[in-house]
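Page 42, continued from yesterday. The earlier attempt failed because a stray header line got pasted into the input along with the sequence. Redoing it now with the clean sequence only.
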Amino acid sequence: MKHIQNTLAIILICLLSGNIFSSCNTVHGTEQSAQTMANIPYPQPRPDSTALTFLPGIVSTDSVEFDETFAPDGKSFFFTRTENKKWKIYVSYNDGTNWTKPVVAPFTETKYSQADPAFSPDGKLYYISNRPKTKSDTSTDYDIWFVTPLGNGKWSAPENLKAINTKSDEYYMSFAKNGNLYFASSRKGGFGEEDIYVSRLVNKQYTKPENLGPAINSKESEYDPCISANEDFIIFTSSGRGDSFGAGDLYGSKLVNKKWLPAVNLGKTFNTKVREYCSYLTPDSKYFFYSSGGNIKWISAEAVKKIISAM
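This time it went through. Structure tokens are written below.
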């Protein structure tokens, strides 16, 4: 809840002052990702060890943009933009030469907020929304929803991921290649105000979420997880830790002998005085995306892997 409140408060400040500072709450992966996404038409210039703004003037503008994911075919790029005090999911298409001016994603409902687009291994698109669960539902918490592509640009009606959602906020999903779902939640029973959880996909059903434990979660807020395809490392955001550079920093941990090592700050290569959040690894493992200062950034994935491998 603290993360959601911080996001809304910062966005309001942005809208009133004209400054671009923000917080957020995506993900990646398909079963054939290594093949279908081997030739993503990335724009030029492409970054190496220094982060660049992604598609300035097209995706990253003077609005607040965050969250990011490529569609399974690599030819569509989904992200979230703040507009009229709501979150809307936008999509930019590659026309064979350039990335087009983004348009509102077809499944976006203008009455509510939608954010955190993320494709699961079976090709469904997951996102969060404060839309009501039923006609009589008056709650305003964020739940995880999903839509299924039907072809010809059409999508199914949104479905609620009932196995995971609670009366608290759930948001920012990241999928391993086996379908295991990592997400953040402010549900009761965690270590802090917001924690990171995993729900494992067993027999095509999501199991009861498990807290990732004290190596990842703390008495502060942890959110926006990005799990590697093989679940051997994770990147996430935490706010309020003693080694923080600013409003929220990127941290990483790797799995050793089935246990997460204590998370470490990714350092000044990534973190600044503003909030860094919404981590995303491209399915071809070439680039690492994140949000900072109201824009979407990207950098060579090797910059992250180098830090993780040194743990």
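Notes: The mean pLDDT is 90.
Reminder to self: strip header lines before submitting.
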